[in-house]
Amino acid sequence: MTHEPDRLSDATVLRLPTYLRALAELEARGVTSVSSEELAVRSGVNSAKLRKDLSHLGSYGVRGVGYDVRVLADEVSKVLGLAQVRPVVIVGMGHLGHALADFGGFATKGFDVVACFDRDPDIVGRRIGGLDVHSMAELPQVLARVAPRGDAIAVIATPAASAQGAADDLVLAGVRSVLNFAPVHLAVPQGTDVRKVDLSTELQLLAFHAMHRDALPGGASSAGSDLSTSEVPS
């Protein structure tokens, strides 16, 4: 891995976190090297696709040995922008926001929840997940303190009716990366990246698969892997 990564396709980038998770699990078990076949199985992709993805990073493995788990994990982390800890702020401290703030797994993945926000005066001032909940009016000042490099990732966990307003406030405060849990499309300016987590859509897709699986003898799925949300198209 001696050269800069090639320009990666969106599909390859979407698979990299899956590879990183599999590598972390192997490292936790004390495994120091892994074949492309085993890593592919653990990642839920075919080995040819995995080898092609990793070749874009400059990693080809060693014949008969495979990939160095630690080295490959470091390289994937670097490509994903996880070489340094990324600050995360949560907007909307209802049940979902509360659960996200309490979740302790972010720190081991390269993220640090540094601030929480809400508009409800009954919630502002509470302590959730070890953090004081700030009002949205404090957003610019708090961001300047907890994410002075301007690299904060915002998680919107508000009701749908409040999500666009939260996004507008975040953009005005300089946030350019948003993870949206609200079931609504957000209008943001060019240069702002939004990823949407739509739980209702995922449930609908699972219902679709269940309906077609249950309709076939033996419970086999008629949809097959082509429609599976766990597999990213190449």
From TrEMBL:
* Record-stated family: Belongs to the transcriptional regulatory Rex family.
List membrane-spanning regions.
none
Known function? Modulates transcription in response to changes in cellular NADH/NAD(+) redox state.
- Location(s) in or outside the cell: Cytoplasm
Which InterPro entries does its entry note? CoA-bd, NAD(P)-bd_dom_sf, Rex_actinobacterial-type, Rex_DNA-bd_C_dom, Tscrpt_rep_Rex, WH-like_DNA-bd_sf, WH_DNA-bd_sf
- Subunit structure, per the record? Homodimer.
Could you tell me the keywords of this UniProt record? Cytoplasm, DNA-binding, NAD, Repressor, Transcription, Transcription regulation
What the entry lists under NCBIfam families is as follows: PRK05472.2-1, PRK05472.2-2, PRK05472.2-3, PRK05472.2-4, PRK05472.2-5
The gene it comes from is rex
Sequence positions that bind NAD(+):
G92, M93, G94, H95, L96, G97
Q: Which segments constitute the CoA-binding domain?
A: 82-185
Q: Look up the domain of life of the source.
A: Bacteria
Q: Which PANTHER family match?
A: REDOX-SENSING TRANSCRIPTIONAL REPRESSOR REX (PTHR35786), REDOX-SENSING TRANSCRIPTIONAL REPRESSOR REX 1 (PTHR35786:SF1)
- State the Gene3D superfamilies in the record: NAD(P)-binding Rossmann-like Domain, Winged helix-like DNA-binding domain superfamily/Winged helix DNA-binding domain
* Residues of the DNA-binding region: 18-57
Instruction: Tell me what this protein is called.
Output: Redox-sensing transcriptional repressor Rex
